[in-house]
Design brief:
The protein is mostly helical. The chain has helices at 20-42, 45-71, 78-82, 85-114, 121-149, 155-158. The model is unreliable at 155-160 (pLDDT under 50).
Length: 160
């Protein structure tokens, strides 16, 4: 009977560790590929261009900002672990989406009205692209982060 090697694979219950650069890369690539493909297949050139600029760029930036805030120097804040995952996700999504919506409004409405920047269809897209991208990226990053921090001690527990 031949000798067999024991496989030392991770249990499916153990999530991959939260690595910020990987989350940011995924946050850029996924919407760029999906929206870019949709833009090419439907013949919407503006969607194909926005896929790699405003949509994917916003997703990557939001993933970086939210991920950095959640990591907080490698240790989670005590309240982010104590609060139910859905409440934490909803809170962060509302904050990120609201901020992105304000930025989208600023770019589409305020800039053309108060500066020499002309009002274009590309600027109007920002009113939808920014908040939608922010909401999706925040949800995914927060849920991924929360999944990897389950069972980690908080700062208060570390001092005992």
């Amino acid at each position: 009977m031949p000798a067999t090697k024991e496989r030392t694979s991770r249990s499916r219950a153990t999530p991959r560790p939260f690595v910020l650069w990987r989350e940011v890369l995924t946050a850029y690539a996924a919407p760029a590929l999906m929206a870019g493909t949709a833009g090419v297949l439907t013949g919407q050139r503006d969607l194909a261009v926005a896929a790699c600029t405003s949509i994917a760029g916003t997703s990557a930036m939001v993933a970086f900002l939210v991920g950095t805030w959640l990591r907080h120097g490698g240790r989670p804040r005590r309240w982010t672990i104590a609060v139910p995952g859905a409440a934490l996700t909803l809170t962060l999504v509302i904050a990120a989406t609201g901020t992105a919506a304000l930025l989208g409004w600023f770019a589409a409405q305020w800039l053309p009205a108060h500066t020499p920047v002309p009002a274009t269809a590309r600027l109007e897209r920002l009113r939808i692209d920014l908040p939608l991208s922010a909401a999706l990226a925040t949800t995914i990053v927060t849920l991924r982060w929360r999944n990897t921090t389950a069972g980690q001690p908080t700062r208060k527990e570390d001092t005992r």
